[in-house]
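Lab channel / #folding
Pinned by the channel admin:
"Please post every new chain as: sequence first, then the structure tokens as a reply. Keep commentary short and put observations after the output so the thread stays searchable."

First post following the new format, from NK:
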Amino acid sequence: MKLETFELPTFWASALINGDTSGMSDEDEKALDAFTDWMVKEYGSCHCLDVQGDGDNFRWHHDATSFGVLACNVADFVFAVEKR
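Reply from TO:
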């Protein structure tokens, strides 16, 4: 199994690990959907295994910036992947 780590918004943790998007705005859900669609296209799946770090790392630029997420607190999200 190969692992990839991405620096992503901490407020995505519940959605990526538990599938719980309650409390997310429509805009945040659209960005998350764009990321998961990209993961499936790029790696064949989007299975988050772990979140590392305390989530107190504020970043202007992170791995979700290109999906429309502005500066926020981030953590390292570890995914099981299969490169295509």
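NK: The CA atoms of residues 55 and 75 lie 5 Å apart.
TO: also worth noting, Residues 2-81 form one domain.
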